[in-house]
Amino acid sequence: MRRILLLLFSALVAFGADDAWTKVKDIKSGTELRVFKRGVKQPILAKFDDLNDDNLIVATKNEQVAIAKDHIERIDYRPPKTGGRVTRETKTTSEVDTKASSSTVPHNAPGLATSSSSSLSLGGKPDFETIYRRK
Description:
By secondary structure, the protein is α+β, with helices and mostly antiparallel strands. The chain has one helix spanning 2-25, and strands at 32-37, 44-51, 55-59, 64-68, 72-77, 86-97, 111-122, 129-133.
């Protein structure tokens, strides 16, 4: 009985790893990836190209590389950003000036005072999210 449970557990763990590998295949071509290889401290920064049962194929700055599934510890991807990259914000305030002016100059006369300000914000990239982790 113990042996059957152990085999069943091993099959479930293997199925979970394959399921995560399948999720990587659903990534859109050109998506930024961070690939962590076993025994290497620095991840590979690349763009997703293709995936098969044995290899992840990515494009780095200089070349196209196939990375064996057995050598991959973890894969992070940068999800697509929703919304525009530039955000524009405009604020307008109006207030009535009720205090009487001692001056007879027309531009100092009491009345409506309006101020307006505008700003632009450049949005950054979303953070990386883990999509595959070796079991």
